[in-house]
Amino acid sequence: MNTISQVTIEALGLVFTGDAGVWEIIGISFKTTAMALAFAIPPALILAFMLAHLDFPGRRLIVAIFNSLLSVPAVVIGLTFYLLLSRQGPFGDLQLLFTQPAMVIGQIALSFPILVAMMHSAFQSVERRAWETARTLGHSRLESFWLIMREARFGLWGALLAAYGRIVSEVGASMMLGGNILHHTRNIPTAIALETRKGDFAQGIALGFVLLVMAFTLNALLHFFQGKGRLA
Question: Which CATH architecture has domain 26-187?
Answer without folding.
Answer: Orthogonal Bundle (1.10)
